[in-house]
C-alpha cells in the first residue's frame, strides 16, 4: 500500500514538474512571439515610412517640375508681350491718346 501511495505521489510530483515546465515553455514561446511581432511591426513601420517618403519625394519632384515648366511658359509669354509692346508701343500710345481726347479734335 505504501508503495502505491509513494508511486502516486511520485506520479503527482512528475505531473506538477511537467505542468510547470510546460507553462514555462509556453511563457517563453509567448515572450518570443511578442518580441518577433514587435520586430515585424517596427519593420513594417519603417518600410511604410520609407515608402511614404519615396512617394512624397516623387510628388514634390513632379510639383517642382510642373512649377518650373509653368515659370518657363510665363517667361515666354512675358517675352512675347514685351516684344509685342516694343514693336507696337507707338501705335498703342497713339490709340490710347485718341481714345482719351477723342479721335478728332474739334478745335
From TrEMBL:
Residues 19-87 form a coiled coil. The keyword Coiled coil applies. Keywords: Coiled coil. This is V-type ATP synthase subunit H. It comes from Peptoniphilus porci.
